Amino acid sequence: MPVNQTADIRTRVGANFGAIYTGPLAQLDDYKLEMPALKRTVRGKLFIKQFLGLSGMQISMNKLPAGAAVPFYHQHKENEEAYIFVGGSGEMQIDGEVFAVEEGTIVRISPAGSRTLRNNSDSDLYYICVQAKDGSLQSETLEDGIKSDAPVSWPT
Amino acid sequence: MPVNQTADIRTRVGANFGAIYTGPLAQLDDYKLEMPALKRTVRGKLFIKQFLGLSGMQISMNKLPAGAAVPFYHQHKENEEAYIFVGGSGEMQIDGEVFAVEEGTIVRISPAGSRTLRNNSDSDLYYICVQAKDGSLQSETLEDGIKSDAPVSWPT
Q1: CB pairs under 8 A between A and B
Q2: Which of B15, B105, B132 sits opposite A136 (nearest CB)?
Q3: What's the pLDDT band for B151 if we cut at 50, 70, 90?
């Protein structure tokens, strides 16, 4: 049964973190997203920022069924997007350029890129889309980390 | 054969995008990462910002083998992290709180959260880690998108 994006999927909240469980990727089309501006209800797309309290990025978890396609091109105002493909195969189109994508393909798109996506295969396509403000990352990964010297302890 | 993070995995570069192919998730441990500051060589972790030209986020693709654990706690200076688990199961520990993670679990961690991760299962654990500057997202997803009215056209 499809559930709205408002169904609570939070599993844990701490002072410095939040965690959710969306279910297996194969069940992502249980989620439906009402998009009144587009006069559409989208299945298989779940935005998770609201559940996690994300402040530097938005993330969507996506399942595009075999044979399905995003029915429009879109650009962005100020956000960079990264598409991380984690299962299946299909095609992306950016500024009129078409190329194959599959598990292990990752694509960065600047705000101005006009993009769309289709699954022209016989299997479902799974991808994660992340949005962050273009040009906003200031501190590099390894330099941003602060390693502790405390030994790691786990419950047995 | 393990390859360094400097091996070029770019597949395509356009004016408004970049694309890479990292190979199937199961082969992520082909990549090795030299970490002189930690006096370690890490297998199964690939940072992709440099290949894609990402400017608002850093992303790493990760495979943590069955029985393996991250051997230290770490915090961040200014970046928020999101861990997106896409296969297998294990445990996260944040500020001393331990909880199970598996395919479909997504965790947000504020810079101050002291975090580590282990794979205490019999299968490999796969996850994607995204860093973005804490508090930097200003434009919300749907409002940031600009939909085109042009009909979508694909080559046959």
Answers
A1: 308
A2: B132
A3: very high
pLDDT tops 90 at residue A35: no
User: B37 or A119, which is more confident?
Assistant: A119
pLDDT at A1 over 50: no
Phi, psi of A39 (to 5 degrees): 55, 40
Instruction: Name the residue in chain B with its Cα closest to that of A25.
Output: B104
CATH architecture observed for domain B8-135: Sandwich (2.60)
Which residues of chain A neighbour B136 with C-beta distances below 8 Å? 55-56, 132-133, 136-137
Residue B3 pLDDT > 70 = no
- Short-list B102, B153, B149, B138, CA closest to A23: B102
Whole-number average pLDDT of chain A: 93
- Distance between CA atoms of B59 and B44, rounded to whole angstroms? 14
A-chain residues near B106 (CB < 8 A): 19-20, 22, 48, 52, 59, 61
Closest CA to B109 of B138, B136, B143, B132: B132
- Interface confidence, given as ipTM, is 0.95
pLDDT band at B1 (very low <50, low <70, confident <90, very high): very low
| CA of A129 vs chain B CAs: smallest distance (Å) | 11
Chain B residues within 8 A of A121 when measuring between CB atoms: none
Give the CATH class of A3-135. mainly beta
CA B30 – CA B19 distance, rounded (Å): 19
Closest chain A CA to residue B54: A108
Tokens of B91: 């445990």
**Residue A146 Cα, gap to closest chain B Cα (Å):** 5
The domains of chain B are located at: 8-135
